[in-house]
Design goal:
This protein is an alpha+beta fold. It contains four helices and four strands, in the order H-E-E-H-H-E-E-H. A hairpin with a 2-residue loop joins strand 3 and strand 4.
Length: 140
């Protein structure tokens, strides 16, 4: 295992993620909120479009937090918390703002978790697409 330091997610990186997610959403005609958290779960950047539903600010943040804590896209976790799923009690077992709806994606650099992005405001599949489009932009 490499012990080389990994550059943390910067505010510049966070702004790149926000801008790219918003461009993808705008191209689809969707108003969104976008949250970027660092590896410690601290807010690095947030932006809510003028006409985005108010709750999208909360959902984008919870999606990012969930993706960060579980180091997995929230889109892949939805079935795990259904009544017959293996983690069905997880959303209520912890006193944490977890949200198992597509739109949260962890951010990695050199194989290490450095943060997460969450998008809220569109349909869950759209939000996931906007978040992954932002990651593609960051990796360029």
């Amino acid at each position: 295992m490499s012990t080389a330091a990994v550059t943390p997610l910067s505010t510049t990186d966070a702004e790149t993620l926000i801008s790219a997610a918003r461009r993808a959403a705008e191209a689809a005609g969707v108003t969104v909120s976008v949250t970027v958290l660092d590896a410690g779960g601290h807010l690095l950047a947030f932006r809510r479009d003028d006409r985005a539903v108010l709750i999208s600010g909360e959902t984008s943040t919870r999606k990012a937090y969930t993706a960060l804590q579980l180091d997995a896209p929230t889109a892949g976790l939805v079935d795990l918390v259904k009544p017959d799923g293996p983690f069905h009690s997880l959303p209520t077992a912890l006193d944490r703002p977890l949200l198992f709806i597509a739109g949260g994606v962890p951010v990695h650099r050199d194989g290490r978790l450095i943060g997460a992005i969450g998008v809220g405001g569109g349909a869950p599949e759209q939000d996931h697409g906007f978040a992954t489009a932002a990651l593609e932009e960051l990796s360029r």
